[in-house]
Automatic annotation (TrEMBL):
It comes from Paenibacillus helianthi. It catalyses: ATP + protein L-histidine = ADP + protein N-phospho-L-histidine. The keyword Amino-acid biosynthesis does not apply. Its EC number is 2.7.13.3. This is Oxygen sensor histidine kinase NreB. Gene3D superfamilies: 1.20.5.1930, Histidine kinase-like ATPase, C-terminal domain. Member of the two-component regulatory system NreB/NreC involved in the control of dissimilatory nitrate/nitrite reduction in response to oxygen. NreB functions as a direct oxygen sensor histidine kinase which is autophosphorylated, in the absence of oxygen, probably at the conserved histidine residue, and transfers its phosphate group probably to a conserved aspartate residue of NreC. NreB/NreC activates the expression of the nitrate (narGHJI) and nitrite (nir) reductase operons, as well as the putative nitrate transporter gene narT. The chain crosses the membrane at residues 12-29, 35-57, 66-88, 108-130, 142-162. Keywords: 4Fe-4S, ATP-binding, Cell membrane, Cytoplasm, Iron, Iron-sulfur, Kinase, Membrane, Metal-binding, Nucleotide-binding, Transferase, Transmembrane, Transmembrane helix, Two-component regulatory system. Pfam families: HATPase_c, HisKA_3. SMART domains: HATPase_c. It comes from the Bacteria. One of its GO terms (molecular function) is kinase activity.
Length: 548
């Protein structure tokens, strides 16, 4: 398998080639020793071995023990090479910097220093006992080569400092990327949620708090709201019997929470230490988001939790406010439409109906005194008036139907969304629809759109798919949805395990919840490098019976 070279790999390869070229040039220019032919042959072998070690270092970076063995072998080879080409005077004694860099940058602290001291000790001992022609003492020989030892020590120190900074940066980047993925997924879930599952917003938020903070317990407590019912307070991590006690304790401090503007650390009797963050809309106080802190958490960890809760607090407030504004807007739209229809009915249809009723009443009183032609004329007039009323009613009804008036339909919005997703991500998305959604209730529209959007988004973001097939069958009594992709796939057992541990799989869990909330069945099949397929079957009408 070909391993893609990183910027660090390319830098090390460049340094290795430059250092080997310079030391080889110095070796060639030295007139002592073997002939130029043998020196050239040795140098070519060294370049070949350097290439082999470079490739294997890149492939072995995930197996530290094997990498340690490879570095040790190269160090031993360099010792032999330096001893055979002049000992202390060998230009290849500095070439040891290459494996030292690998060890300091990729392996443990203790191994790097053990390797360095081992190299210098073995090299110094062999040179003293077998190549000490000048009769120097061991201390003098070591001091004469102190610069070499100093260079190696400084190299290890600097490389380990750089490696530590690199690891910290990678950890921060990974945490930031993970956070952004969770936040995008959270916003997507709430953005497409329906009124039916919007009341579970607290549960969605607490699940994501646990994922973002890596803590075990989180909560979203909603303050009481006059008038309309507020979403239920939710928690993640506590036992069911502990939930009532938790929210009862929080309710005792409601007055304090309403005055709070900043994050607060609070110790609740019998529950432990909490970090709590108020959630405020522009018009009112909503509630508190919080996490239960571990005793071992330091200051830096608490700062990270504060950042996450502040963001989720603002996001929750925006989402709740948008939802309330949406509810008000829908009510205004319905009210305006009712008024418009009432005006139209009053101005045209009701007047015509009144005329028909009056004409019928008159005909009933006078038909015996009328001639046949007069009676036929009067009936024809009533018939024409009834036909006119039916036509006006049909026009009014058609104006309310987006399908018949040419306005945007639900299926049209699904097609538009998938088309945009395909174009923005350069992914082929094939949509096949059979049946009609005209009589499908609104909760089904919202749930299906969210499932389709979530599944296709996952296939692109996490599955790296190049093609996604969406098949939707709409029948009077059944809805069947199939979404399959050619992405990398995953282990489904591991997904559900992580979902239970609150470490992954919330997107799939939410899709499953949406299908089951409508009385449907959710099936997931996937394996590594074999794509993913989601099959959903939903009986039409079951959700209405459940909520009746």
């Amino acid at each position: 398998m070909k391993i893609k070279a990183t910027a660090e790999d390319r830098m090390i390869t460049l340094y290795r080639n430059i250092s080997l070229s310079l030391t080889s040039l110095m070796y060639l220019l030295d007139h002592t020793g073997p002939s130029v032919f043998y020196k050239s042959l040795l140098i070519m072998l060294l370049f070949l071995f350097a290439l082999v070690f470079t490739v294997y270092y890149r492939r072995l970076r995930k197996w530290p023990r094997v990498l340690m063995l490879a570095v040790s072998i190269e160090i031993a080879g360099i010792i032999v090479l330096a001893l055979c080409t002049g000992g202390y005077d060998s230009p290849f004694k500095l070439y040891v910097l290459n494996p030292v860099l690998i060890a300091a940058g990729s392996l443990s602290f203790y191994f790097s220093w053990s390797l360095l001291f081992g190299y210098f000790g073995i090299f110094a001992v062999f040179c003293y006992f077998f190549m000490n022609s000048s009769g120097k003492t061991f201390a003098e020989a070591v001091l004469d080569n102190g610069n070499l030892f100093l260079v190696l020590v400084l190299t290890v120190i600097i490389m380990q400092m750089v490696n530590r900074i690199k690891r910290q940066r990678e950890a921060a980047n990974a945490r930031t990327n993970e956070t952004m993925e969770h936040i995008k997924s959270l916003y997507h879930i709430v953005e497409t949620s329906s009124q039916h599952d919007f009341m579970n917003i607290g549960q969605v938020i607490t699940d994501y708090v646990v994922k973002l903070t890596k803590l075990d317990k989180a909560l979203f407590w909603f303050a009481k709201k006059s008038g309309e019912p507020a979403p239920e307070s939710r928690q993640t991590g506590w036992q069911q019997e502990e939930e009532w006690f938790l929210f009862a304790e929080l309710e005792k401090h409601e007055h304090e929470w309403r005055l709070q503007r900043e994050p607060v650390f609070k110790s609740l009797p019998g529950l432990g230490d909490f970090l709590l963050m108020p959630v405020r809309m522009s018009t009112r106080f909503v509630g508190m988001i919080g996490v239960k802190l571990e005793a071992s958490e330091g200051l830096e960890g608490r700062r990270w939790y504060i950042q996450q809760l502040m963001f989720l607090s603002e996001l929750s407030a925006i989402i709740l406010e948008r939802h309330e504004l949406g509810v008000i807007e829908n009510r205004l739209i319905i009210t305006n439409e009712q008024n418009r229809i009432a005006d139209e009915m009053h101005d045209s249809v009701s007047q015509s109906l009144f005329g028909i009723v009056y004409a019928t009443h008159s005909l009933k009183q006078a038909w015996r005194k009328m001639s046949e032609s007069e009676l036929e004329e009067q009936i024809e007039l009533i018939h024409d008036s009834a036909t006119k009323v039916a036509k006006e009613l049909r026009i009014t009804i058609y104006s309310l139907s987006s399908k018949k008036s040419g306005g945007p339909t639900w299926l049209g919005m699904v097609r538009s969304h998938l088309k945009s997703l395909s174009r923005l991500n350069d992914v082929e998305i094939e949509l096949k629809i059979t049946g009609d959604d005209f009589s499908l209730p609104y909760p089904y529209h919202k749930a299906l759109f969210r499932i389709i959007s979530e599944a296709t988004g996952n296939a692109i973001r996490h599955g790296a798919a190049s093609r996604v097939d969406v098949e939707l069958s709409l029948k009077p009594k059944w809805i069947r949805l199939s979404i399959s992709d050619d992405g990398v796939g995953f282990d489904t057992d591991l997904l559900w395990t992580e979902s239970e541990d609150n470490t992954g799989g919330l997107g799939m869990k939410n899709m499953q919840y949406l299908a089951q909330s409508l009385g449907g069945d959710f099936q997931l099949s996937s394996s590594e490098n074999a794509g993913t397929r989601i099959l959903i079957s939903i009986p039409v009408g079951v959700a209405e019976l459940k909520n009746a």
